[in-house]
Amino acid sequence: MGVGYISIPVNNPGPGDRQFKLRYGLVNNLTVPTDVHPDGSIRVTPDVSHGRQQAGLDYCSILDREGKNEIAIALRQHAGQFPVYAMREGDRLRCYSIVGGAPVFDGRTISGRGVMSAW
To answer: DSSP strand E in 1-117: where?
Structure first.
């Protein structure tokens, strides 16, 4: 998604004041698979940002990348409860509720094409 914490210098901090504040927003560099860029990171340009926004609107499947733990869901089209916690099992995601700090399977799954089963 290209978001994270960004350190911003504080204007005219006084003695003992914090020199920086944190903001959650778009980052300057984006982690990408090494087959996309050998450094595993690319600079976020207006073209990259526009391409990611368009891809978010045109998605049709769940990303299958190791080490990533988020999927984007079209909130504007969803009438169910959020957030949805899920873990990959084969080519599907199993949905869980968090009960007493532990995941409990709630009977729903999400297909590889991003379709959630009914309760």
So the answer is: 3-9, 20-26, 29-31, 41-43, 85-89, 92-99, 102-110
Digitized pLDDT (tens) for each residue of the chain, 119 residues in all: 566 777 788 888 888 888 888 877 777 777 777 787 888 888 888 888 788 778 777 766 655 555 555 555 554 555 556 667 888 888 888 988 888 888 899 999 988 777 888 76
pTM: 0.36
23: Cβ contacts below 8 Å, ≥ 6 apart = 5, 6, 8
Strands 29-31 and 20-26: unpaired
Cα of 54 vs its chain's centroid, Å: 15
Cα distance between residue 103 and residue 95, in whole Å: 9
CA distance 108 to 118: 6
For the chain, what are the domain ranges?
1-58, 65-119
CA angle in degrees (0–180, nearest 5) for 48-93-75: 50
